[in-house]
Amino acid sequence: MPQPYYARHVFFCLNKRENGEDACAAHDAQGAFDHCKSRVKKEGLSGPGKVRVNKAGCLDRCAGGPVAVVYPEGTWYSFVDNADIDEIVESHLKRGEVVERLLLPPDVGR
Ligand code: FES
Q1: Which Gene3D superfamilies match (predicted)?
Q2: Does pTM surpass 0.90?
């Protein structure tokens, strides 16, 4: 297997719904995404061989929103504020340690 271009890839659902149904955008997913991107950059973690933070549409786990997923581990997080994002960056993206308290339960779907 070739080395992956990014060591870790983070996807944030930024989906919004115009029909009044709940979606991650209604819980400031954009703010969390922006904060994560800037924090990853500030920590020197971004770029090839390191971490990439990307926008995503609905990831179909809306009931736990806002959500983000980190690959290659496939670790799903549900977060509330920037302090949660800071912990994910410091612990998971920097040291490879999953933040257990922010894990999205496996049975949460749409
Ligand atoms: S709206 Fe975010 S996972 Fe569906």
Answers
A1: Glutaredoxin
A2: yes
